[in-house]
Every structure is written in C-alpha cells, then in structure tokens.
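Subject: Re: docking follow-up (zinc ion)

Dear J.,

Thanks for your patience while I sorted out the input files. As discussed at Tuesday's group meeting, I've set up the holo structure prediction with zinc ion included as the bound ligand rather than trying to dock it afterwards. The sequence and the ligand SMILES I used are pasted below, so you can double-check that they match what you have on your end before we go further.
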Amino acid sequence: MKRKTIRRFFRRLASFIKKTVVFLFYASVIFLAFHWFPWNRFATPVDTAEVDKYYALLKEHQRPVDVLTLSLGINDDEDLRAEVEKAGMQSKDELPIALNRLIKAMELEATPISLEYGDQEKPPAFVTNFNQERMVITVSRLVKLRREQMSLLVHELGHIAVWGMDRSAPMICGQETASAGSLLSGCHQERVVDCSGFFQGQGILTLNGLTDETFSTADGGTRTEKKVFGYLKPEQYGYLLARYCADHGIPARNIEFFLEPAGRKYFNIGNEYLKRSAVVSVKPAAPATGVYWCPKCGQHSTVDLSGELAEIRCPKCSFHIKIQNAWERTTRFIYVRLVMPMIKLFHLIKLRMIGIKSPTF
Ligand SMILES: [Zn+2]
Ligand SMILES: [Zn+2]
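The structure tokens for the complex came back this morning:
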C-alpha cells in the first residue's frame, strides 16, 4: 500500500515536471517570437513628401545610373584588420580602391577626384572643389569602420553629381540651404545629395553605413546602439532604396542578401511602406541590372537582377557565392534569433542553479 502511494507520487511528479518543461519551452518560444519579430516593419510611417520631391527633381535633371551597386568587393572585416595591425603589419588601405570603383559606378570619371585623410571630429567627411577642376574628398581617421567610410564616400560623390546638374551654383559641402536662383533653390541641399546617392544606384552602400543593433548584456538586459550618417532618417533611406528597386523591377529578395542587418531592417520598412502607400505608383522604367566587384581578384561584372538571383560567380577566378533563398534565410533567422538565445537561456539557468551569478557570454 505504502509502496503504491510512493510510486503514484513519483509518477505525478514526473508528469508535473514534463508538463512544466513543455510549458516553459512554448512560453520561451512565444516570448522570443514577440521580442524579436520585426513588428515595426509593418507599422512604421515614413515621411516621404520631401524625398519624393527631390527624387522627382533628380529624375528630371540628373543622368540616372541604372546599374545598382551590390558590392564593391572591399574587405570590411574589422577583426581581420585589427589582427593584421596587432601583428605589426600594415593592412592594405583599400579605401582608395573603393573610391575608384565608386567613381566608375557613378559615372564620374570625367572629374579628377582624389582621397585624403583628416583628423577632424566633425564632419566625418567633406569634399573640396579646387577651382572647379579638381575635387578632394577628406575622410576623418576617426571613422574606423569600412562600411561607414564607404557610405561617406557615396555622400561626397553625391555632392559632385548634384553640382554637375547646375555648375553655376557653388559646391559648398555642409551648406544646407541651396543658393537662391540655382536649380536647387528652396531645397535642403544636403538632403538632395543623400537622395542622389540612391538615384545613382548606391543605396546598398548608404544603408550598410547604418548601425542599429540590440545586444544582450551580461546582467540580462539589452543595449541598443544606433548610428546614422547623412541628413535623412534611416526609414527614408530604406524607402529610397525600395523606390529605386521598384523603378527598376528589382525583386527585394535579390538585394536583401547584400545588406547588413540594420540596412535590411530599414529596407524592409521602406518596402512595406511603398507597398501599402498609394502616394507613389511606380512601374519598372529601366532594366534590372546589378554590378559587383570580385573580392578575390577585383574583376568587375554585371548581373541580371530581374529573375531570382541564385548565385554570383566571378567570370575571371574561382570565386562564387550562393545567394540564400527565403527558406534558407528563415532557417538561419530561427537558428540565430530563437534557437541560440534559448540555448543561452538554458545555459544561464543551469549556471544560476549551480550558484554562478554573473556569467558573461
Ligand atoms: Zn554633404
Ligand atoms: Zn574573381
């Protein structure tokens, strides 16, 4: 009789533990799904009146660049560069190469443009027009991340492209109010310059200059780091790239692969806004073509973006990358955003149970 009662007790206990574990599992999945799901993508409003006005102005007066830059093929692995420098070696400065590739992509070869480094805290970069003959872009050494430097180059080259629309006006970098009587009169000059980078096919590089990340901290909380260069809001940048893609019939899935997490987030917000707003009706007006430089041999190639892009293959060397499709991206998303945090959570619970209070991951 006594043994039967004990057995029943353990059976009930086992059943209770099993139910609790199952409940905790589903509760964690629901919590993490709510926590990480990008709800804002479907609800964030985007102020498009001003950028639509400038985009229309550029369409009317600027020569369009109908080839979207996917990648300049420049190594932006900061850890690798830091390792090389720590070992006492000078890592190769690839920014001048990036500038040359951008000049080609933005079809600005007719203007002599060179690069210098400065120590200024602000602005992070600027362009100087020497006698309307020679342009010098100065990038601050304080900007360390390659992706940020490249987005700054796009902005400075945007100044040269915008100045090319009306050379009677002076090209003064940093001046927000455009000169009276010029083509841009009444416009915010710096915002027109930002729009121009997108109109000229460099939207991926501008979006990749953004930082918007949430980190888990050792005390169990979260920390968000945001950084935006330029004069527009990140969601306006996302919208401008979505507009460029809609104008050229480029499916969003073909370029998401080339965007960093923050850039992808704002591109998705822009895309959703474009889909649900009746403000602009855009029909593909130009061919869907992308350009990339091989990171291994530097070969420049174009690729058709109208269908589903499955891979990128260098025509000169053995380099190739497979473009993840939506299913592969979803699987990776589930792994990185749900499975990994749950493993960390269980690890944390385990450490707490054995008495370790402040684990760091
Ligand atoms: Zn500027
Ligand atoms: Zn190659």
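A couple of observations from a first look. The first strand starts at residue 67 and ends at 71. The longest helix spans residues 2-36.

Let me know if you'd like me to rerun anything.

Best regards,
T.
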